[in-house]
Amino acid sequence: MILKMMRKLLASPLAFLLFATLPTLSGVSRGEETQPDRHWGQWRGPQANGTSATADPPVTWDEDSNVKWKVAIDGRGTSTPIVWGDRVFVLTAIKTDRKDDAIPDPQDQPKTNFFDIKQPNAVHQYVVLCLDRNTGDEVWREMAVVKIPHQGAHNDNDFASASPTTDGKHLICWFGSAGLFCYSLDGDPLWQRDLGEVNVGSSLGEGCSPVLHDEKVVIVRDHAGQSSIEVLDATSGQTLWRKQRDEGNAWATPLITKAAGKTQVITAASNRIRSYDLDSGDIIWQCDGLTGNVTPCPVRLGDHVICMSGYQGYSALALPLDRTGEFTASDHVLWQIDRGTPYIPSPLLYNGLLYFNQSNQNILRCVDAQTGELVFGPERLSDVSNIYASPVGAAGRIYVVGRGGTTMVLKHGRTFEVIAVNQLDERFDASPAVVGDQLILRGSKFLYCIEQ
């Protein structure tokens, strides 16, 4: 009721005078878009490399100390929560008791793939949540769609694994084959699109997150069917261009960056690393050199982009952004690595140092991002289990979150030094967010806000 009254007031001639001196309903005050310490608007943060230049989260915590709030989240989701101002946005998929009796129960279905992943027959609610960053209280929730997933997902995946993204005006929420949805930061539905269903090989599930740049939304869908990249207008949801891709399963979120006079969309996959022109969809350059099931997202270093993969082999490449046409991994690369690279986690690029773990294991390496030379490692992180979450960096510290609930805090620098080891009673697969003096951690059941 209050929200409806406020919306009517916004439409009145007095709205400008009243709200020129007050925060907006979205929780973002005027000029706040210039305050990067207030935002973590996409899954790898404001620089798309896992770092915050202004955040200073706590060093130590446990279930009884430095937990500002802890909130149960219904359903399942491994997408990273994002933050804009005083709002935290989270996606989840809630399995209901309703089912389609025409589809046999999963336990009664025959084995059809290597991982024995079955076709769901339960109705799921695909939900967008907005929480107050200061209290953890729910501000609003929107049920984007209610449907039965067309395909199963690996036990380590789910139906809400793509992180949302925002530019302060549009909140883009991607549930893969269940649809693409855009909201205002107050939860008003702006538009939605059904981009069709995909066929992920071995039913491993979807997971590539959308990217928002210059009011354009980029969606990459690499799977066992016809893969594609599509760019939509963030205001209307209309497709601006769409290109087919010769790729199989991959989950790497693209990097959008301006270089060599163009806005490039860098996509990492097994057949090719490609750079697309954001405006036209034309391929600017492409290169081979990665292994299978590419998942880590690219990061930019000066005039180069670093791409890596760690399934069925190891590979990391530093590629020039000023090239055109096709070239090979053996030509025109700044450096190349063939060991110890990650499968699921993305690397952390922090002030010229590149941190990454081997495969999904608790083995950490740090290399000089300019030369590819090993700075330290391999170091076994004995206090954490295997790792799915991507590391983050802030205030001269590295935060590595293990699946067993342990977070190791390391000193950022050219020597390996453990500062603290922290334990929570949760399983963590989602990558953390760091904003201001807070660390936001999404577990399998709870969302934590860690603050001194």
Automatic annotation (TrEMBL):
Key words of the record: Signal
Signal peptide segment: 1-26
Biased composition (Basic and acidic residues): 30-40
Region of interest: Disordered: 28-58
Pfam family, one: PQQ_2
Domain Pyrrolo-quinoline quinone repeat, chain residue ranges per copy: 127-374
PANTHER family (UniProt xref): CELL SURFACE PROTEIN, OUTER MEMBRANE PROTEIN ASSEMBLY FACTOR BAMB
Protein name: Outer membrane biogenesis protein BamB
Originating species: Stieleria neptunia
